[in-house]
């Protein structure tokens, strides 16, 4: 009687669900194609789809990485458009907010509707945003050169353009890494496969900055190369996003997602975490129920019609099961106190990094007094150094994570339950938390060098700062999604990573404001160049322009490193709960 009651109460659920509730596809048509199938043709097709998706994710991350070269043209907003340091940081912070704030929603959409849709959205938003920014930049230069009354009318719409750029970049980046996380969640080198698009994102800064400085440059009166031609650069990036976004719409697919969801449900049932999933298992055992009672029992009905009805209900059931599982895992993720400690750690560390990247050009400008005849180093050079070192660090820590850290053989959420799947252990084991803390300390080393003032009037030493910060920032950013997949699984990765990635938005704004305030205060005490046409002093020179900011950043990074240690070894931390990390 109990079983009959359960079945009768559950059957109407599938009948009464609205089309909207069940319209979410399983990411793509490839979700039913398994590379574990005994059919060689289907296995080859699944492998081909995974390979194409992997290549598309790398290309997508390379395109999304164009956002990291803000320092390449940020200082030109100051010298050509006469924006103040607060306005420049306002644009950078707005872009970062738009890149991080909607990420939980973007991740939710990616998990439920697939990465292909996000790739198309990125083509529209980022492509349109860069096109608008190019138009506004040209208009702003014309206003300044023409000494137009009330110039700087471009600032407000420029903010809007960078909102679109930030959101579009987030869509493409998250679509790329989610594709790799879900398609390569199994295997010995899952961390390296996940970090591949993350490393490409970092490498993109070097490639794009060097290409722009060599191909899209302004010509000086003496015929030498000058700064990047911002108008042409923005148009180039706009076209790049549109092309990559359209390609990714069709190429970014999750292969074998039905099996991924089924395995996750079985694993969590075995752990005792999801007892209510029994209703889905019973429905599967009896052939999806509603078809048996309404269609299959009719002996005279056409067999093709019966097959169609059976397939339709099977799809409805699979979509319902997926939505139910992902919602349950989201609740588990949000209810985990260690997740919030981890998010706080990420915020305290990445916030300073985002601010440094956005202000690298103006930081370099403070290092050399205008009374000296030495030319300050190129911002493009140090953007390239940061990007190259960051890329190497991402690959190295991902490889160390795969080779030295203990790894659960399951790609699903860890419950710490003794009945969970076994763990792949190494002879020499180094926790990913240790790698994360070491990376943060390397990051703080670069910040500490700058805070000490030893680079002032010795701009040739700045490579030490850009290298250490690039290495630490890149390593922390690559270890974060790896830790998320190891502890909370891959099936809900987009949503989980989106929630964690929300925190740098606030950090970027806070540190951008702090840096701008210290910079503007330093203007009054430094030898400044007068801004022609406005009579405003907008340039700062000397240690007072940045030292207080970077001392505070260094302390923030140290606190952030301690937060993840607390999540690992503290009360009810990962270690005490039997979580392998």
TrEMBL record:
Give the GO molecular function terms.
transmembrane transporter activity
SUPFAM superfamilies, alphabetically? Answer: MFS general substrate transporter (SSF103473)
Subcellular localization(s) per the UniProt record: Vacuole membrane
Indicate the principal place this protein occupies in or around the cell.
Answer: membrane
Its membrane topology: Multi-pass membrane protein
GO-annotated cellular components: fungal-type vacuole membrane
| Keyword Transport (UniProt) | yes
- What is the protein's name according to its record? Probable transporter MCH1
Organism of origin is: Xylaria flabelliformis
